Amino acid sequence: MPNPILVSACLLGLPTRYDGRHKGNEHVREHLREKGLQAIPVCPEQLAGLPTPRPPCWFAKGDGEDLLAGQGRLVRCDGMEMNTAFIRGAEVTLAIARLTGCRTALFKEGSPSCGVRRIYRQQQSVAGQGVATALLRRSGLQVYGEEDI
Q1: Is the pTM of this model over 0.85?
Q2: Which residues contact 4 (CB under 8 A, 6 or more apart)?
Q3: How many CB atoms sit inside 10 A of residue 105's CB?
């Protein structure tokens, strides 16, 4: 497969977001075509087994890197801790990257899984990275957001 890249499925127009919708982005699709990249769609939250639609989640403490280090906390809107599910989704996403030879990812900003520079903590947009982004970066992948292209 020539030039594979992981891409947040919602950016490709797939209805994978927590609210059952998508964030289809023509600029992303154009970028992939121009660069000759083969998109490998992923949704770490669906890969974790979470349903779509699903209750929104955000960080109660820290960000994805903190969560992987055992210092963060990610919760559902009703307060239920979701650390294990989000780590599992990140691990499956990394496995897909390895299986397909992906060395880069293009992810959706603001997501608790995919956020590259921005996440939500206590329903506020703050600087930070999602769980899947943090794990991919720890494993040597380059991850950038749709706002970077």
Answers
A1: yes
A2: 37, 38, 40, 100, 101, 102
A3: 25
